[in-house]
Amino acid sequence: MNKFEFQNPVKLYFGEGEIAKVAKEIAPGSKVLVTYGGGSIKRNGIYDQVMAALKDCIVIEFGGIEANPDYDTLMRAVALGKAEKVDFTLAVGGGSIIDGTKFITAAMNYDGDPWDFIVGKAPVPAAKPFGTVLTLPATGSEMNCGAVISRRATKEKYAFHNAKGFPQFSVLDPTAVFSLPKRQIANGIIDTFIHTTEQYLTTAGSPRVMDRFAEGVLLTLVEIAPHLIAEGTPSYDDCANFMMAATMGLNGFLAMGVDEDWATHMIGHELTALHGLDHGVTLAIVWEGTMNVMRREKEAKLLQYAERVWGITGGTSDEIIDKAIAATDNFFRSLGVKTLLGEYGIGEETIVAVRNRFEERKWNLGENGIVTPEKVEQILRCRL
Questions:
Q1: For the domain that residue 73 is a member of, what is the CATH number?
Q2: Cβ proximity of 127 and 109 under 8 Å
Q3: In CATH, what number is assigned to the domain containing residue 352?
Q4: pLDDT of residue 206 exceeding 90
Q5: pTM of the entire structure?
Q6: Are 379 and 290 in contact (CB under 8 A)?
Q7: E strands of the chain, at which residues?
Q8: Domain span at residue 79?
Q9: Which one, of 102, 95, 91, 248, lies nearest residue 166 by Cα?
Q10: What is the domain count for the chain?
Q11: Res. 73 pLDDT band, cuts 50 70 90
Q12: Is the pLDDT of residue 140 over 90?
């Protein structure tokens, strides 16, 4: 078990009707910037609940934040927030809205070009206070301090972390899942699954508690996924377990004392930046390649994963690992997601471009930097 420090200050309100609790967290008379996406919250009733909770506040709205939030869009929100001198920001949406709001609330406290702190050229400033109302389980952004921002003009996508940028509170109402398109649910399941494996499928000797915790999240997703993507409205209980799995998958709990990977995510970000693929889709494409290419380094954990998550025990080590990787790929495909680059018309040019980007940035990925740019190329070639 590695040494670690841990702090997570986010207060959660979980359950149906809890959006009303927003009124307890924001002082009456506050000037509140409400950020959201394409307007689905106005169709499913969440917008009305939020506005009712904010009836004693001055509300300024900023809608239109995209999936994989774009820097130029977010800078317009930064300008609005500064001009209005807002006291608080409330993100109403999924991970993209929350990630974008983390950037907005930090950038409002920054005098230079905020792209500098996204790419690591400057320290990330402390964020202005904000909270969230989660509408799409996936990223865990409602209970962590990380964010991923895109810049479509230059086809770039970067993650940043801000220790002074946690939400003050987050509201998780599982009924928000009822109206989600099945594609978004599938992407959220995959994102949560691979968030978990990025912290679990690393080195042997991880804390037993964290291993079992991670395995519990993975098994829960495998159990509830068929119900969530089936025709019709899923049950409240399945939606609640999905929402909890997504939050616990990336709120820091699974990472305590463990080595972390994140190569699949970093490679996937490049596929989104270059081709606009859904984040969950890119993860489903890259994951199998990462496990195949890095199977010797991850052998002990892959064998544990095969047995504890998929019940696979018979055969040689390579046979067991092959079966576990195939079972995972079949799981992603059962959600309606294709998992090969060629199925999206992506080939050699992209593979070379991604390797070149990592070489230019001098990025070695994975636990202890074991995923070199050369390995990245091998991983992507596995997925042609």
A1: 3.40.50.1970
A2: yes
A3: 1.20.1090.10
A4: no
A5: 0.97
A6: yes
A7: 11-14, 31-35, 58-62, 88-93, 130-134, 146-151, 156-161, 169-172
A8: 11-175
A9: 102
A10: 2
A11: very high
A12: yes
